Amino acid sequence: MTPQANIMVVAPIIAGREAELRRLLASMNREPGVADPDNPLVPFGKITTLHFARFVVLEDKTREDLLVYGAPLPNAINSLAFLCDCDGTADALRRDLVSHAEAGLRQIFSFCTSFQSGRDLLRWMEEHEQTAATTYNNWLGRTAQQVREEEALRKALDLRLQKKATTGWNARQVWEELRAFVADEKAARRLTLTPAARTPLSWSIKNLLDCVGVPLLLLLLSPILLLYLPIFLIQLRIHELNDPVIAPRPSTEHAKALAVFEDRVITNQFSAYGNIKPGLFRRWTLAFLLFAVEYTTRHIYNRGFLARVNTIHFARWVFLDNRTRLFFASNYDGGLETYMGDFINKVAWGLNIVFSNGVGYPKTNWLVMDGAKDELTFKDFLRRHQLPTDVWYDAAPGITAFDMERNSRIRDGIEQESMTDDELSEWIKLF
Amino acid sequence: MPFTDADYRDMQGLLRFGYVHLTEACFLLLRIEDAAAAGHWLESAPVATAEEQKPSPKTALQIALTCEGLRKLGLPEDLLSGFSAEFLSGMSGDENRSRRLGDVGENAPSYWGWGGPSDVPDAVVLLYARPGLLEEWKRSIETGLKNSGFKLLQCLPTSDMGGVEPFGFVDGVSQPTLDWEGRRDVSGDQLTYGNVTMLGEFVLGYPNEYGKYTTRPVIPGHETGGLPAADDSEGYSDLGRNGSYLVIRQIEQDVRGLWQFLDKQVSGDASKRQTLAEKMVGRQMSGDSLLPMTDQSISGVGPDKEDIQRNQFTFDGDADGVRCPFGAHVRRANPRNADYPAGTHDLLEKLIRLLGFGRKSIRDDMVASTRFHRLVRRGREYGTKLSPDQRLQPKPPDEAASGLEFVCLNANISRQFEFIQSAWLMSGKFDGLNEEGDPLLGNREAVAGCPVDKFSLPVAGGVRQQIQGLPRFTTVRGGAYFFLPGVRALRYLARIAKFD
């Protein structure tokens, strides 16, 4: 099994050069917001381990919301963020990026204050890495290569079923026919189904330590946490009852700047950025919750769904600027209205525990209740904090997370030596 | 103030009635050329209200305005901005919206006969009349309009096809039941599909399925300009109350194209041809369901016997889509599911589901909860009705087009009409399907290299049958988003126009 990794490079943009940078970024696109895989700056398509990548300008458009707290205004310096989700390790990805796109990346990062032309690109990227507090990967171990191979398999089987009359055949007959077909296609090298690689030992050890270590740590801390709980609840209620809601409808220009990048391919990108409510309470609550969510995404929600939502490929939550700001990025299937609807109707509690620590979020009760359930306020809040993703690369456009799971199941069936009738009757429904 | 009989009198009748006995109808698309004169007409326009009339009326007139129309009447921008973003932008005003709605390729607004980017009407007047009464009445209304600062852009005619749409299927079979009495409780999760829907899903100024009020323009002051009070904001008057958003889309139907394509698929077998058509629609031609009636009654279905026979069903009993394919038009347009996947009853099951566990199959929990995506439909057919034989004959050169003037009412265009259109009908990935859009309404325009021209018919115990290369059977010819104001709101707008 090949685990997935990610990088996020963040660096401030030189004052006055943002417009020029955005033009350069736009030149990488095939259509607005959709990167050309072969663009000369960063030819994403050449990096075969890549799932998703994006360049986004981090601009705090809601900083003045903090005025209601009487808090000092945070800096208004815009940064460039470069994010990738890949197979293997972050180190290997950085090396791949440098070997395939050194000149282009240098050109892009030359718009950042800390980048000098003589600098070692790899080192610079490492130095500007921002580690995520929480990451989500739809399916641990599913590689980009596997996605391509299994989609090719699905297409070949669909075509085979189209050509070969199977009307009246039972599931077993179909399965045997398709197995024989795949064997022939593989022999003729028209189909490849690469077996999973060995799981790196170091990863397994680290994963196991985390899996056991975090609950142990929580168990050790539980007396303190339990003692603190009543105080926490009182603090929480005081905050909840007093935190102002700031969610005016986003301006037409802002909404349009976002919409132009959306619904180009079946999967969409989402980038959001905002300030955490001032004070240590919200900051540490959020840090603890994201730590807990990270545990669940690492060890539980790594098989196709995040609570009830099965349309998210990769997502991450990243603290920035000394934990005063939070950046959220995701890659999801379908349109924004569906995505937000799922947030509200299926996982409002999950959205609430994290984002209610952000300035202006719709009022929650006891952390999990209400909040996102205030539909229109929530939608305006979300949209207002969303940023246009200038460049977005999807290595498998048109293939949803559901499609990927189905394709894997089709392949599993083909690779079985024997199948029971029950297994077959489920398998045949996958087409 | 909860809903009272006075609100019926303040509401245009279309929200409550389909005017099925007024079989003649036409829709006048208008431009406002003189706002003050138009205001005079609007102030006394004979608008039919939702109040029950005895004897039932011989004619009915309804008025709705686009964003441009409201602007021309002189509604200030700060009030206008209280309407939803979709309404302000309009159906064709933003190519990002068009892409989402599937209005690309041959369906692109630039080809529309009306409602395209530079061709949005200011208002629509919908006229309904008993047989034989429309023509004369229409003439007198038209004359009145022309003398009152309106310019008639186009009259969209309709034809009475006896409750059957041009393809030959009984239409308008399923409608949500509106909770007029305010008895519905939406404070908790809804674990079974129901047909009763909060008034606020269709009428502005009342709580919706989230128990919240949809954003709409409100004006400081008590009963300012004769407007009703805003329920949710003390000291404000409500321009939206008893109003709704009216969506019109003219959809041309290639009736011969559909039937001749089907005929080829089944090599001319008449019974198979009909079965295949019924699978694509998801209902029998008679309007009956493809699924057996459930034992359990469904709230808001009945007491009418025919309603029970046609609508007392969900798709829970057809989890594999063998009876009604997943991609069938009615299964997309109204998936009849609840807030949780079927079979979730008690608190523990809910908790397991809430955390994302307990999936019974890969397809589990794919479709959004239906109750947030309902429409009141008031469409009318247009053109000539073809007989079953005619449908299979080549098209004569001078045949007039036929189709549907799709009309629907909703309080939140993006969550209701646009969601259904894009996420359910146009999506090539609805409910875990792949590469297939709505068999009737699909535009067949590939997205990201993904074709959307297939239709799968699941087969029990075997591999699904699949039809490839479905041609486009419908073309969008026009459309717009309107605001259908309450009566007091209409008079308020009229007075603004008069004195502006």
What topology does this entry show?
The complex is a heterodimer of chains A (431) and B (500).
Chain A: E1 4-12, H1 18-26, E2 29-31, E3 34-35, E4 50-58, E5 79-87, H2 90-109, H3 121-127, E6 134-137, H4 144-163, H5 171-187, H6 201-242, H7 252-259, E7 267-275, H8 280-299, E8 312-320, E9 325-333, H9 336-345, H10 348-355, E10 364-365, E11 369-370, H11 375-385, E12 391-394, H12 401-415, H13 421-427
Antiparallel strand pairs in A: 1-5, 2-3, 4-5, 4-12, 6-8, 7-9, 8-9, 10-11
Helix pairs in contact in A: 2-3, 4-12, 6-8
Chain B: H1 5-9, E1 24-32, H2 35-44, E2 59-65, H3 67-73, H4 77-80, H5 85-89, H6 95-101, E3 123-129, H7 134-146, E4 150-157, E5 177-178, E6 196-197, E7 218-220, E8 236-238, E9 244-253, H8 255-265, H9 270-281, H10 305-311, H11 329-333, H12 347-354, E10 376-377, E11 380-382, H13 388-392, E12 402-410, H14 414-426, E13 455-457, E14 465-467, E15 474-484, H15 487-499
Parallel strand pairs in B: 5-6
Antiparallel strand pairs in B: 1-3, 1-4, 2-3, 7-8, 9-12, 9-15, 10-12, 11-12, 13-14
Please provide a written account of the structure.
The complex is a heterodimer of chains A (431) and B (500). With 431 residues, chain A is α+β, with helices and mostly antiparallel strands. Chain A has 2 domains: 334 residues, no CATH class; 83 residues, no CATH class. Helices cover 45% and strands 16% of the residues of chain A. In chain A, the strands form 4 sheets. A 4-stranded antiparallel β-sheet of chain A has the order 1-5-4-12. In chain A, strands 6-8-9-7 form a 4-stranded antiparallel β-sheet. In chain A, strands 2-3 form a two-stranded antiparallel sheet. In chain A, helix 2 crosses helix 3 and helix 6 runs antiparallel to helix 8. The longest helix of chain A has 42 residues. The two termini of chain A are 26 Å apart. The relative contact order of chain A is 0.17. The mean pLDDT of chain A is 96. The mean pLDDT of chain B is 96. Chain B is α+β, with helices and mostly antiparallel strands and 500 residues long. In chain B, the strands form 5 sheets. In chain B, strands 9, 10, 11, 12 and 15 form a 5-stranded antiparallel β-sheet that branches. In chain B, strands 2-3-1-4 form a 4-stranded antiparallel β-sheet. In chain B, strands 5-6 form a two-stranded parallel sheet. Chain B has 2 domains: 261 residues, no CATH class; 226 residues, no CATH class. In chain B, helix 2 packs antiparallel against helix 15 and helix 8 crosses helix 9. Chain B is 25% helix and 16% strand. In chain B, a hairpin with a 7-residue loop joins strand 13 and strand 14. The chains are: A alpha+beta (431), B alpha+beta (500).
